[in-house]
Amino acid sequence: MNCTGIYSDEIRMIDEPSVEPLMIASEGTHVILPGEYVNKNHGLILPATEDGRVIFVLPYQNKALVGTTDNIYPEMTNNPKTDPNALTFLCRELVKLYPLRTEEELRNKIISYWTGLPLIL
């Protein structure tokens, strides 16, 4: 069993140097918004974004955890950087869910954000 995340291919190559890489980094960007943006008992999934990705909105510690994945990230790294375009995308899509809000208002309400690299095999 190889549970080494972004290092899976490197570990496989220690055992067998001739193996072809299998892993692709998939960018997952997430933001925390104030709790007013989510029902504290239920989450939401937005399955039809402008580019076909899915966005989720989940209650998390009295706040809203919003995120998406499935954008290919150019490199395997321990410290992925959040692309400002990913934040713009999330806010633009959230306006569809919260039509009384603007993109700018949502952007200004972001408490924190981060990007992680789940893998695609």
CATH class: Alpha Beta
The low-confidence runs, each spanning 5 or more residues with pLDDT under 50, are none
Distance between the termini: 15 Å
DSSP helix fraction: 10-25%
Task: Give the CATH architecture.
Answer: 2-Layer Sandwich
**What is the domain tally?**
1
Report the sheet-strand fraction: 25-35%
Biggest beta sheet attributes: 6 strands, antiparallel
And the CATH topology? D-Amino Acid Oxidase, Chain A, domain 2
Structural class: alpha+beta
Number of E-type strands: 6
The sequence of SSEs as H and E is: HEEEEHHEE
* Radius of gyration, in angstroms, nearest whole number: 17 Å
Name the average pLDDT.
88
- Helix count? 3
Looking at CATH, the homologous superfamily is D-Amino Acid Oxidase, subunit A, domain 2
The shape, in one word, is elongated
